[in-house]
Amino acid sequence: MKGISPLVATAILLVVTIAGGVLIYNYVINSLSSAEHFASLNIVSSKMLVLENSTIVNIRVSNIGTKTAIVEKITILPVNLSRNINIEVEPGVTKSINVVFDQVFNPSSKYYVIIVYDQGETEPYPVSLIK
């Protein structure tokens, strides 16, 4: 009985090594290329204008994600006032949103805004007063 020749053994090892490399390469490429689409809103600025009978809050928001975000609600803290809205912010776009509150806010107090959207919510962002 004779064994496998060294040339055939080398060829078999080479084929198995290449096949394993191709399998690992395909797994890694598929894992990296199947990125999920997500929306991520970032508040760029927030300003407040206090009028005689109401307060207008202007919020500039940017979508830094890869999917359209739908803004559902804007909340002002610490007074905990909310307004339900339905505004779409496309990926890479910055939009300005005006929200009117039927309440006069105290200009000397500190206020924060939170935006709730379909993928989550933003961190509280300070509101500055327009004089």
Describe this structure in words.
- The protein has 131 residues and is α+β, with helices and mostly antiparallel strands.
- It has 2 domains: 1-34; 41-129, Immunoglobulin-like.
- The chain contains 1 helix and 8 strands; from the N terminus they run αββββββββ.
- Keywords: Membrane, Transmembrane, Transmembrane helix.
- The chain crosses the membrane at residues 7-28.
- This is Flagellar biosynthesis protein FlaG.
Features:
single chain, 131 residues, alpha+beta, Immunoglobulin-like, 8-stranded mixed beta sheet, 1 helix, 8 strands, Flagellar biosynthesis protein FlaG, transmembrane helix, membrane, transmembrane
Largest sheet descriptor: 8 strands, mixed
Task: Report the CATH superfamily of the largest domain.
Answer: Immunoglobulins
What is the top-level CATH class of the largest domain?
Mainly Beta
- Please give the number of β-strands: 8
The overall number of domains is 2
How much helix, percentage-wise, in residues? Answer: 10-25%
Identify low-pLDDT runs: none
Pattern of helices and strands: HEEEEEEEE
Number of helices: 1
Question: From the helix content, strand content and strand pairing, which structural class follows?
Answer: alpha+beta
Shape by Cα distribution: rod-shaped
Mean pLDDT: 89
How much of the sequence is in beta strands? over 45%
Radius of gyration: 28 Å
Question: CATH architecture of the largest domain, please?
Answer: Sandwich
The CATH topology of the largest domain turns out to be Immunoglobulin-like
Termini separation: 99 Å
